[in-house]
Amino acid sequence: MAARRELVLAVGQGYKTTSVTKKRRTLDEFAAVTGYHRKHAIRVRRKSAAGVLSASRSRARLYDEAVRQAVLVLWEASDRICGKRLKPLIATLLGAMEHHAHLRLDPALRERVLSMRAATIDRMLAGPRTHVRGRSRRRPSLAIRRSVPLRASADWNDP
Questions:
Q1: Mean pLDDT over the full length of the chain
Q2: Which 8-state DSSP code applies to residue 52?
């Protein structure tokens, strides 16, 4: 990959100022050497010209583990409802839980919890939600299915 990256940078130098026939020849050689499809080679060259091949910066996390734990407590208290329904309920729940001393949040953390969007809440709860579901989506056991009597339509006494 490092060799390909160097090749992309080498091909990119002076590519814009050359003639169409030289560009075509250069692109064909580049595709043959790298094994890229021609259209992919064009895209890779274009990205390198824009500087996208450099290391991308990662964004700082807006919501840390403390926020996640607070949302998890609120989610459990609200009987594990979805993020879309939990979002408008958070302010009420926070007030009630702080009033009854079930939850204590510092003001900065409280503001971050209140400012979360429903989709962000759902993403935060994705992990715990999978562990909670467990066997709830599976079919009932064979013993339960056998204990429920099935009647044929001939057994019904319809008038």
A1: 82
A2: T
Does the pLDDT of residue 72 top 80, yes or no?
yes
How far, rounded to the nearest angstrom, does the alpha carbon of residue 20 sit from its chain's CA centroid?
A: 42
Query: Residue 14 carries which DSSP code?
Result: T
pLDDT at 69: 94
Contacts of 12 (CB under 8 A, 6+ apart): 45, 48, 49
Q: Per the structure block, which two tokens stand in for 47?
A: 């990205």
CB distance 86 to 121 below 8 Å: yes
Measured distance between the N- and C-terminal CA atoms of the chain, rounded to whole angstroms: 79
pTM exceeds 0.70, yes or no: no
Q: Residue 149: exposed, middle, or buried by beta-carbon count in 10 A (0-12, 13-18, 19+)?
A: exposed
Structure tokens at 141: 């056991």
| Per-residue model confidence as pLDDT tens digits over 140-153 | 677 777 777 776 66
d(CA 69, CA 104): 12
* Farthest-apart Cα atoms in the chain, separation: 91
